[in-house]
Amino acid sequence: MSKGRLAGKVAVVTGGSRGLGRGIAEGFGAEGARVVVNYLQDEKAAREVAEILRTNGSDAITVRANVGEVDEVRTMMDTTVKEFGTIDILVNNAGMLNSFRLAEMSVETWDSMIKVHLRGMFLCTRFAIPHMLKQKSGKIINMSGTFGVSGGAEFTHMSAAKAGMIGFTRALAREVGHDGINVNCIAPAIIRTDLYNFMADDVRDSIVGAYPLGRVGEVGDVVATALFLATEDGSYFTGQTLCPAGGDVMV
């Protein structure tokens, strides 16, 4: 039997095949959780994550689903419950990254950003939360970002989406707190993942250099925050936005 702070818990991690999602999935597995690794494109990477978890003694499955599509999300949650019996933890991590000046941004670019972050978060939560309500317990963690607090030039679409995730978190936390469900948000700054090189070196270095702690964040910084919120250690936190951001944003 698995041991750890999440022993026996069932966690769904969207966008779990790479970056922060992968780190969180592996961190949860190391603490005994049974993990559903959601992915959209990279099946090989998702299977690799699940295999690592199983090798280390945790149950894990992969489920392909576009979080913005109703039927695919419903099927993912149904598959989770069929395989593991329930859903205890949901991490809404799936996302995308691109930048455009607003005057040059297409409607399609705006819509795709909103779809994956806000619609995706809504759909995954909508189909997971009935199971949490039934058992009177659950942890929902929404992965926002510092742009959702401070905004980012040439990232109006992402800033709006990430801010919406924070508002959703606060509203839902008030709605389901008496049902034993904690809803929180994580808003990291720049983290060293495969998306780290998206920005030009000089721009990225200038931003990171202005952080009070003066360093780029590591995946482990965010995983530690997610583990805190997912375990009993964070049981008195709800509606909160925690920022592993080196001091970039202080809330």
Provide a concise account of the structure shown.
With about 250 residues, the protein is an alpha/beta fold. It has 8 helices and 7 strands. The model has no long low-confidence stretch (mean pLDDT about 95).
Describe the structure.
Strands 3-2-1-4-5-6-7 form a seven-stranded parallel sheet, with helices on both faces. The chain is built from eight helices and seven strands. The longest helix is centred in the middle third of the chain and has 29 residues, at about 105-135. Strand 2 (about 35-40), helix 2 (about 45-55) and strand 3 form a beta-alpha-beta unit. It has a single domain, classed as NAD(P)-binding Rossmann-like Domain (Rossmann fold), CATH 3.40.50. The mean pLDDT is about 95. Helix content is about 45%, strand content about 15%. By secondary structure, the chain is α/β, with parallel strands linked by helices. The protein starts with 9 loop residues before the first strand and ends in a 9-residue tail after the last strand. Helix 1 (about 20-30) packs across helix 8 (about 220-230) and helix 4 runs parallel beside helix 6 (about 155-175). It is globular, with a radius of gyration of 17 Å. It has helices spanning about 20-30, 45-55, 70-85, 105-135, 145-150, 155-175, 200-210, 220-230, and strands at about 10-15, 35-40, 60-65, 90, 140-145, 180-185, 240.
